[in-house]
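One record is given unchanged without comment:
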Amino acid sequence: MEMKILVVDDETDLEWLIKRNFRRQIRQKQYKFLSAHDAD
């Protein structure tokens, strides 16, 4: 089962770092990362 994680941050580098660090789990469909660059 795929776990969804929402990341909200105005730094676009954070999204890249998370996807880089969890790339194996993302490929294996363990995690699905959703991102927003602001809360509006």
Q: What stands out?
A: The CA atoms of residues 8 and 36 lie 5 Å apart. The chain is about 40% helix and 30% strand. The mean pLDDT is 89.
